[in-house]
Amino acid sequence: MTDGKPYSQACENNKQVILEKIATVFNEPGILLEIGTGTGQHAVHFAQHLPHLQWQPSDHPSNAQLCMPWLEDANLPNINTPLPLDVSAPDWRLPPINGVFSANTAHIMSWPEVEAMFRGVAAILNAGEAFCLYGPFNYGGQFTSPSNRQFDTHLKQQNPEMGIRDMDDLKRTGDAIGLVLESDFEMPANNRLLVWRRC
Ligand SMILES: C[S@@+](CC[C@H](N)C(=O)[O-])C[C@H]1O[C@@H](n2cnc3c(N)ncnc32)[C@H](O)[C@@H]1O
User: Fold this and answer.
1) Domain carrying residue 122
2) Which residues contact 145 (CB under 8 A, 6 or more apart)?
3) Could you tell me if residue 1 is inside a domain?
4) CA neighbours within 13 Å on the CB side: how many for 123?
5) Does 160 map to a domain?
6) Interval 110-127: pLDDT, tens
7) Which of 19, 55, 60 has most ligand 1 atoms within 8 Å of its beta carbon, as the pocket-test mutant?
8) What gap in Å lies between CA 87 and CA 43, rounded to an integer?
9) Residues 80 and 95 sit within 8 Å (Cβ to Cβ)
């Protein structure tokens, strides 16, 4: 916590590079759902710099209030009240959404939850709309760096259901439900920004 606000140094480190990528994807006015908002630092930075978007934060019901101090401090007109959303819920019951962003969630969720997130995103997006997913990912079962391998071990020690996801599994999951991988951007610190497009 900093100044009474929850704080993620990783968010401070990555928010500008992520912004530069998602600004090119979410370039039309619309309502943007963020899944797993966490502290709210991303929501505030992105909403400040993308005023054509109405930012809709959300998080697991156990965590959905965590972002309130950042949102209240920023007091931006284009950030909505955060919604409690567990991606495993069978019906997300959301207002119309035009795009989805999520950072550092796929390795925290169990694999069935990741599949549920993809199904839910596919269900709420219209053809042509995008889902940007940021985080570390594996390729062909291989870690992209020793630090990602260590991070995966650390995650699994906390909870064996967590772990860095493989691009092959994500692509298979997306392809089956009409979410096609459009771009895979290399990002600092062995992270990726994946852009999925609803077809
Ligand atoms: C590592 S934090 C990332 C937070 C923020 N996006 C960031 O980049 O700092 C993972 C987030 O995923 C959320 N999460 C985990 N399981 C979830 C679920 N089943 N449905 C929705 N959110 C979930 C957690 O509550 C947490 O906010």
Assistant:
1) 9-198
2) 190
3) no
4) 14
5) yes
6) 999 999 999 999 999 999
7) 60
8) 18
9) no
Strands 191-198 and 179-187: antiparallel
Q: Say how many domains are in the chain.
A: 1
- Ligand 1 center to residue 59 CA distance, Å? 6
pLDDT at 4: 84
The answer to whether the beta carbons of residues 11 and 36 sit under 8 Å apart is no
Ligand 1 binding pocket (C-beta < 6 A) is: 8, 11, 35-38, 42, 59-60, 63, 85-88, 103-105, 108-109, 113
* Tokens encoding 51: 């005023």
Evaluate whether residue 3 is within a structural domain. no
**Ranges of the chain whose pLDDT falls below 50:** none
Q: pLDDT by residue (tens digit) across 158-177?
A: 999 999 999 999 999 999 99
How would you classify the pairing of strands 165-166 and 83-84? Answer: unpaired
Q: Where residue 107 sits, what CATH number does that domain have?
A: 3.40.50.150
What SS3 state is found at 86?
A: coil
CB 73: neighbour CB atoms within 10 A?
13
Gyration radius of the chain's alpha carbons: 16
21 inside domain: yes
Q: What is the DSSP letter of 29?
A: S
Cα–Cα nearest to 55, from 75, 32, 71, 37:
32
Helical segments of the chain, H only: 9-25, 41-49, 68-74, 111-124, 146-158, 167-177
